[in-house]
Amino acid sequence: MSRSESRKPLIVVGVCAVIAVLVLVFGVSCGNDGDGDGDGDGDAVKEWQKSFGGAAGGAELMMADLEAIGGSCTAAGSLLLVTGTCVFVVQDFGAAFGLGPPTKRGTLIPQEDVAIELFIQGSRIEQDIEAGKEIPLTFGTSGGRLGVTCLSVGGCTLQLMEAGG
Description:
The chain is built from 2 helices and 9 strands. It is α+β, with helices and mostly antiparallel strands and 165 residues long. Strands 1, 2, 3, 4, 5, 6, 7, 8 and 9 form a 9-stranded mixed beta sheet that branches.
């Protein structure tokens, strides 16, 4: 074994150590918000992270994404008006080559008590929800189905909002 061959593992370890130190220094420096006050609250970095986080976070679930397939319901603006029971379908929205949004997200807020039934990617979730409680919805590219049953006489209203309210 030549002398240069026996040093290769040491060189690789040295390069890895240098990279680790650079990553550490870069990570610590990102904690400085650049305003010179030394508080390190990272406002500038947080904005930068938000811009990248939003790129992969998916799209907003819109009223147009909810297609009523059964029951008695109407959509008016951002409100779902349900009489008794209604079923909505979110169609497959996977774009060619997977270039579309990975998810569609929204929040439903019922004005009256409701029972919700979700079918998403082969899983079924059923739950009774009290009036005013937020229901976060996330549909993957294969879509899904949302069933709403009013637990009060006379129907119910649900407001569709952006994810997180």
